[in-house]
Amino acid sequence: AQSVAQPEDQVNVAEGNPLTVKCTYSVSGNPYLFWYVQYPNRGLQFLLKYITGDNLVKGSYGFEAEFNKSQTSFHLKKPSALVSDSALYFCAVRDIKAAGNKLTFGGGTRVLVKP
Amino acid sequence: DGGITQSPKYLFRKEGQNVTLSCEQNLNHDAMYWYRQDPGQGLRLIYYSQIVNDFQKGDIAEGYSVSREKKESFPLTVTSAQKNPTAFYLCAIVDRGFAFFGQGTRLTVV
User: Closest to B98 (Cβ–Cβ): which among A46, A90, A108?
Assistant: First the structure.
């Protein structure tokens, strides 16, 4: 079975400060890892993914994430947060060995960037 | 204009009634998924279909039904057996784990 944990329900950060949203995962094989962002009453939008290769993945809107296999983590980061980054962020995992394309999502972390 | 279209955006249902949520895609993709979103619980998989005329139950299929008669369409019916149907419903296509979502339907039972 595959699972994802986002330990923080909400992250508050001042505009211009670094932003980190935490994610840990559990899979039996190797993972595909994803980050999505959701604005109110909208569907999820893709930010970035890790499939293989470099552990540091760069994505949309200045976001990046670091894959750490030993810690089974895939934390989302942005060096300088903007007020417009305030949204709900979801981490997701798919076990490469699992049949089909089932994605498992974390519970989400609400990010609030204050001016 | 390509993508996934969910309709309606907002839906109100009386208790005891069935209601069907629409999901249409013109991306020519085989795999389509339905998720339910509740506050603080992330997204939970209801049903998914890997190919026309075939679908599988997800983690919370009870009280829901689907059909996949056409590649473009994957409607979700919320039946009267679903005890707590008020939620935000998201349709997605998934390819090698990457998901592309519709804009969602917010269902409220009144």
Answer: A46
